[in-house]
Amino acid sequence: MERPKDFVPVSLAPDPVIEYYKQFVDVSLLRENLKLTPTERVRKMQEMGRVYAELRRAGENLSRQIQAQPAGTLLPMGEQVRRAVYPGSFDPPTLGHLDIIQRAARLFDELIVAVAVNAQKQSLFSLQERVQMLQECCRHLPNVRIASLEGLLARFADQVGACAIVRGLRAVSDFEYEFQMATMNRQLAPEVDTCFLMTHQQYAFLSSSIVKEVARLGGSVDALVPPNVAHKLRERFAPKTAGTHHPSSE
Ligand code: PNS
């Protein structure tokens, strides 16, 4: 049989990608194609072939990219950055706080340490001093930021797009207060979960209040707080010389 003049040989080798995409081809279009002249039909096939080839290339590129990306750099689906807030008074920050900060910084992409402004609570250090002490302690942690927290914690967490609030749990005695706070925060911001990290046993009985008491009475706090905080405490409780006045430590 003689070949038609405009016959163009096309590869009939089954291509799995083409076979896959064929299922999306509208059958009525195929029927329409039968009305085309052989030349028109071949042109159409060539055109479709180009589209399939392009789709195949795009698919191959995508799978190459996915294979090339190390697992650790893959971001969680649907969430660009997992940000958490670690709130507290930090008056002053202790090694127990720093331990929680370091561990939470490993668990989340970003950690915001939120230093609470509490008008009803007399603090030893001003808000600026507490923020500065924490900034110094966290310099080695690139994904940790220090912020001041005024008003509701739940609103703050919502505003910064946090998915979690982090709190440290020391002894059983912490539980009731923490449970109450976590429940209230969930009511105010249902999207934000509270995560508790068990304090390292070394710091189980460490608190800012006990540190302040030891420092006030002249004891060493070197094993309880970071060096810059110990320095600040010594300064604050140094015997007062004439002309030195610290209203917040009264
Ligand atoms: O270190 P602390 O003093 O135990 O921290 C308490 C803190 C700052 C986390 C808590 O007092 C707080 O969340 N303050 C912000 C105001 C707020 O949201 N209050 C309602 C809590 S349910």
Tell me the count of domains.
2
Considering the protein shown, what is the CATH homologous superfamily of the largest domain? HUPs
Number of strands: 5
- Class from secondary-structure proportions: alpha/beta
CATH topology of the largest domain: Rossmann fold
**Which cofactor or ligand species appear?**
4'-phosphopantetheine
Low-confidence stretches: 6-12
Strand order of the largest sheet: 3-2-1-4-5
Identify the quaternary structure here.
Answer: single chain
| Termini Cα gap | 110 Å
Average of the residue pLDDT scores: 83
Instruction: Determine the strand fraction and express it as a percent band.
Output: 5-15%
- State the helical fraction: 40-55%
Order of helices and strands: HHHEHEHEHEHEHH
Reading off the top of the CATH hierarchy, the class of the largest domain is best stated as Alpha Beta
Q: What's the helix count?
A: 9
Largest sheet report:
5 strands, parallel
Give a topology summary:
Blueprint: H1 16-22, H2 27-33, H3 38-68, E1 83-88, H4 95-107, E2 110-116, H5 127-137, E3 144-149, H6 153-159, E4 164-169, H7 175-188, E5 193-198, H8 208-216, H9 227-237
Parallel strand pairs: 1-2, 1-4, 2-3, 4-5
The chain binds 4'-phosphopantetheine (PNS).
Residues 87-89, 116, 149, 152-153, 181, 184-185 line the site of 4'-phosphopantetheine.
